[in-house]
Amino acid sequence: MSAIQSMNGGHAAAASIQREASSGGVPPMVKALTGGIEGGIGGMGEFPSAQGLSDAACNSDLVGMNKMLGSNIGVDARDHQGSTPLMVASWHGNAEAVGRLLSVGAAVELKGNDGETALHLASWCGNMRCIELLLRAGTSVDNKDKEGMTPLMFAAWNGREAAVEILIRAQAKVDAVDANGSTALMLAAEEGHADVLRFLQKQAAAAKLKHR
Prior knowledge:
The protein is mainly alpha-helical. The protein has one domain (11-207): Serine Threonine Protein Phosphatase 5, Tetratricopeptide repeat. It has 12 helices and no strands. The chain has helices spanning 11-23, 28-33, 48-58, 62-69, 85-92, 95-103, 118-125, 128-136, 151-157, 161-169, 184-190, 194-210. α7 (118-125) packs parallel to α9 (151-157), α9 (151-157) packs antiparallel against α10 and α9 (151-157) runs parallel beside α11 (184-190). The longest helix is centred in the C-terminal third of the chain and has 17 residues, at 194-210. Mean pLDDT is 82; it is low at 1-18 and 36-48.
């Protein structure tokens, strides 16, 4: 019997259909950042100054970032997608930009329009250095988005084994449940990420033994 078949009589598949219907198979903010909503990152939008800072973070343009940060643009200014520069840099894996933004006080706990934090986005993409910097800066490893999904769920759903491992080491809850009743293990199973699934199965078993 496959892992998916063993899960609550098809619960994982039903949850997957619900997610795909609402977000096209990926978290809504991830869809926005890849161009699924209003064209994604790029262009000046309604807020040119904030958008310019996000574009610099996107391209790891530290010179441009420093110039804008030295003006009256706040480090947490949101672009036309509702994302902060830290979220954008984390999504693109620009660790230097993430480090610079954190050094001038970027807020790690801010959430985007759909509830995702910078750690959610770094975890989805498997941007390890960014994940490490965000965790070191004190972001909560178990923050939930509007669908109740944690960064661990994002990483598991997208098959990012190394990200899953570092989040588990940071004490992410392997048994956390989202709004559809799914855990990170279920998400890895429904997407066929065998290595992630095996790792999470071991972690789930260890957690059960620990709490006996």
